[in-house]
Design a protein that fits this description.
single chain, 48% helix, mainly alpha, 75 residues
Length: 75
Amino acid sequence: MDTKLTLNVDKDIVEKAKVYAKSHKISLSQLIESYLASLISKKSREIEITPLVKSLSGVIELDKDLTIKIDILII
């Protein structure tokens, strides 16, 4: 069930959000609802770290100036 919500938001932000929503072919209401849903979803709040990963944390020290190169193959 939908309910009406009144918000006070900076005019520039609203205008930019409208452009963003339009470019993604959704309404501003849908954009805001989606954002609020993502904030309260359990998946985004509860990321479980396994005991194995916890035990490996801090095992390797990397140089601060280390550069990592990632090659991506697209087929």
